[in-house]
Amino acid sequence: MNKIISLFFFLIFTTSVYSNTDRLEGKLERNLENLMDKVIAWRHDIHQYPELSNREFKTAAKVAKHLNDLGLEVKTDIAHTGVVAFLEGGKPGPMVALRADMDGLPVEEMTGLPFASKERDTYNGLDVGVMHACGHDAHVAILMGVAEFLTSIKDDLSGSVMFIFQPAEEGPPVGEEGGAQLMLKEGIWTDRKPDVVFGLHVTNAPNGLIAYREGAAMAAADPWRITIKGRQAHGSRPWDSIDPIMVAFQIGNNLQTIVSRRLDLRESPAVISVGSIHGGVRSNIIPDVVEMEGTIRTFDSSIRDTIFSEMRNIAEKTAEMAGASVEVYLPNGQ
C-alpha cells in the first residue's frame, strides 16, 4: 500500500504543485513508516465496519473528523454522505483534486481476517452481509494519509488540493440519487473547479506493484434490469403457464451471444454478466414475474450502445417467442 500512496504523491508533484521534489522525497521517506501505520489502522477499521451506498454515515464522520483535525476547510453532507476538503498551498498554482470512494457492497465476508466485517443491512428488501469487497476501504485510508502528509508540507505547495470522498460509487439504492453525478449536481465544482482530477483503484496485481496500461485501464460499468411477465400456474400443470423462469434462462444464455457473436473483440473487450435472478415463492408454483439484474462493462462508447440495442432486442424477442412480455431498464433511458 505504501507504493500506492507514493503514486498519489507522484501524480501531485509531477503536476507542478511542489517546488522541490528532491526535498519532498526525503521527507516522505522519513515519514512513510509512521504514516503507513496509521493508514493500515484506518483501513482495518473501515473494512470491519463497511456501509452500503448512500449510508456511509460512520465512514464519512471518520473522514470529516480527520480532515477537520488537520485544519482543512471541510464540507460534509454532499450527495447525502460525501465529504470534500480543501488544502491551500503556500504558493500560487493549479488546483489538483484527489478522489476516493467510500461505499461497501452487499456481500457477506468469509475471509476469516481478524478485522473481517460482521455488518448486516437491508439491500433491495433483503437482509444482506456488508463487505468492502472492492477495495474502497483502502481508497479512503490512502487518501486520508495523503491529506495528512500534504498538510504537513503545505507551505511548499504551489497551488491547492481538493480531497473528494465520494459516496455511492457502486450505485445508489433504487429510487435514490447518489454518487459522483449527485455531487456534481449539488455543485461541488461551482465555486472552485480543479484543473485536473486523479483517482486510483486497488486491484489484484501482485502485492507491492503498481499496475498501469496504455489507454483505458478500467471499464465503464452500467447496471441493467429485465422484468419478465408471464402467467402463473401450478407446477404440476406447466402447460397452463407462461413460464417466466424458463424465459429468464433463455435470455441469460442469449445475452452471452452478444459478446461472443455480435461484437468484434479485436476492437475492444466487453462483458455482460447476470448477477441476480428473483422469481417465485414456492417450489410447486410457477410464478408470473421474474426479475433479472446484471452489469455491462465496456471500454468503448459505440460498443456500449451496440450492447444496449442488442440486449433490448434479445430480451423482447425471446420473451415474445414464449408469449411473455418484458420491461428492459438500461442506463440513460435506452
TrEMBL record:
The yes or no answer to whether the keyword Hydrolase is present is: yes
What family does the database annotate? Belongs to the peptidase M20 family.
For this entry, the protein name equals Uncharacterized protein
Query: Pfam families, alphabetically?
Result: Peptidase_M20
Identify a single GO molecular function assigned to this protein: hydrolase activity
Hydrolase listed as a keyword = yes
Q: Cite the entry's keywords alphabetically.
A: Hydrolase
